[in-house]
Amino acid sequence: MDPLYIIANYGPRFLDGTLMTLQLTGLGALMAGLFAPFLALARTCAPPAAQWPLRLYISFIRGTPLLVQLFLVYYGSGQFRPLLQDWGLWNFFRDPFNCALFTFVINSTAYQTEILRGGLMGVDNREVEAARAVGMSRWRILQRVSFPHAYRIAWPALGNEVILLMKASALASVVTVFDLMGRTRQVFSRTFDFSSYLWAALIYLGITVVFVYLWRQAELRMTRHLQTGSNTTQGEQRNG
Amino acid sequence: MQELFAYGETGWGDELLAGLAVTLQLGVAALLLGLLIGFAVAWASLSRQALLRSAGFAYSTIMRGLPELLTLFVVYNGVGLLLNQFSAFLSPDSTPVEFSPFAAGVVALGMVFGAFSSEVLRGAFNSLDPGQSEAGRAVGMSTRQVFLRIKLPQAWRFALPGLGNLWINLLKDTALVSIIALEDLMRMTKIAVGATKQPFTFYLAAALIYWGLCVLSEIGLNKLEKRANRGIVNR
């Protein structure tokens, strides 16, 4: 076991893998973050009869292992190859990176939808009523009142989801994507040096620590009007 | 379609069921080990000694921050290496031993479950009313009795929803063990895919089985929660 030898000889590989992991996680979380607000809105406002496909989708995603979902997309798409070729989608599903990203987006959208739904339900109804009373349109209320507050409530949970996705992105290595985990397995199979795993662990923990710090800073920024400075009581009374 | 999932020589029904049995065994074994670790770590992080507290905190933080797949590989390869070095140290000419994938799976998933459950248990024990333990001691109960009759039943009530979620996550994480060649549901599905060339059909079948397990677990957990809360009046 020689940690220094490993990082001196395989450092660029680890860096390469780390960038891939960040890319998979960042793109996955971001794209899921684009769909989630609309689905969360449907989950809170749409009539129950219209909701069952959405509930079925969320239950399926939450009730099955991500690995199965990934295989369903990556290997499963092969069963429909002629069809996908006709539609011109085969080139997309042939690439393991695309499949992994696609799966992560589908997966994370379900979780983020549920989190945001909780946030939307946490918004006090009186805020919406007040906004309606001053004559805001429904769209404007969502944009200025409901969603900003819902995101503030959901922020910590959304951060957890991003960390879970980052950890889950290690699964991409199973379908031959060279993310951090993939690179680590490659290095280990060449050197049989156990410290390659320790380096990977260190990098994953490092990413988590930095992310938690940044996410917390963003949260502080979002809630700066709620923070009690020198004139504590005044602020509390205003927000109580 | 029916032929594919038939029971016996021609279909894959019995293979999938055998895999399901391994998945369940793995899940239950990891749950037991994980609860044991969880209690130990929760006890350490609630201890009065600063050293134990920070050890408990370090364990749960590190294990929760690592991908489960990485933990699994660390345990499978690392413990395997250690075992081999140890046996080579005892008798230099011994043949290398193989650390079984099942054992590696139980240890790795148990360690992960232990880290997450320690947080749930810590929260549960923290939210107990200290007045009740004091009352127990006042009527002459020993520390052990206070723990078994007052603290544990109530902590169980608080911890159950969190532990239930962790159990469902554990059940899903068992699929990872197929990557280190344990013949669980996922691995058997892969074998069936290799033979039939129908990946979508079989992975969908596996997904539905996992889904069924999760839904069943949720129903069971709801019942358990009702039972755990039977002494509580709804206000």
Give the overall shape of chain A, derived from the CA principal axes.
Answer: flat
Q: Main sheet of chain B?
A: none
Radius of gyration of chain A: 22 Å
How much of the sequence lies in strands of chain A comes to under 5%
Low-confidence stretches of chain A: 230-240
Shape of chain B: flat
Helix amount of chain B: over 70%
Low-confidence region ranges of chain B: none
Total strands of chain A: the figure is 0
Can you describe what's shown?
The complex is a heterodimer of chains A (240) and B (235). Chain A has 240 residues and is mainly alpha-helical. Chain A has helices at 3-45, 48-63, 66-74, 81-87, 90-94, 96-122, 125-133, 138-168, 180-191, 195-222, 232-239. Chain A is flat and about 70 Å long. The N and C termini of chain A lie far apart (58 Å). Residues 230-240 of chain A have low confidence and may be disordered. Chain B has helices spanning 13-45, 50-65, 68-90, 101-126, 130-138, 143-173, 185-196, 199-228. The N and C termini of chain B lie far apart (53 Å). The longest helix of chain B has 33 residues, at 13-45. Helices cover 77% and strands 0% of the residues of chain B. Chain B has 235 residues and is mainly α. The model of chain B has no long low-confidence stretch (mean pLDDT 88). In chain B, helix 1 packs across helix 4 and helix 3 (68-90) packs across helix 4.
Précis, in short:
The complex is a heterodimer of chains A (240) and B (235). With 240 residues, chain A is mostly helical.
What tags apply to this protein structure?
heterodimer; A: mainly alpha; 81% helix; flat; disordered C terminus; B: 235 residues; mainly alpha
Q: What is the fold's blueprint, element by element?
A:
The complex is a heterodimer of chains A (240) and B (235).
Chain A: H1 3-45, H2 48-63, H3 66-74, H4 81-87, H5 90-94, H6 96-122, H7 125-133, H8 138-168, H9 180-191, H10 195-222, H11 232-239
Chain B: H1 13-45, H2 50-65, H3 68-90, H4 101-126, H5 130-138, H6 143-173, H7 185-196, H8 199-228
